[in-house]
Amino acid sequence: MSALNHCKKVWTNFLSAGGFDMQALAGLKLVSASKGKILCELQVEKQHLNRLGGCHGGLLSTIVDIGGSLAVAAEDMHGTGVSTDLNISFVSGAKLGDKLSIDSRCDKIGGTLAYTTVEIKVDDKIVALGRHTKYVRLAHKANAEAKHAQASE
Description:
Elements: H1 3-16, H2 19-25, E1 29-34, E2 37-43, H3 57-73, E3 82-90, E4 99-109, E5 113-122, E6 125-135, H4 137-152
Antiparallel strand pairs: 1-2, 2-4, 3-6, 4-5, 5-6
């Protein structure tokens, strides 16, 4: 299965849980993926704005969270672990109608932790830069079990 198709399957599982990801990022489009990297897009809509009419920092933080998770998925992981640390620098703003380009990569995946970087842009303008660290030990176990189940089919 291609990295993009695998990530789409993982993203569909995230959305099927309902919750916050579905509410905030239902319009997220997965554009391309390769080993440890994924490019996504999201159109800024009214529900993504803060009270001043700019893209809400909470949305951008959520994008860093999900971008990091999908970068881990692009390492051929079925489970993506849990967050241990997330930080974000807000560099400039985005407004209603802007198309956010979300470039995420898994910088390193070890037996316990995965380190990811997420860059959010509008055109060539950086909107936010984020780093996301994830605990993946249990995700590795789930990944091995899922691959074993696929091999048995």
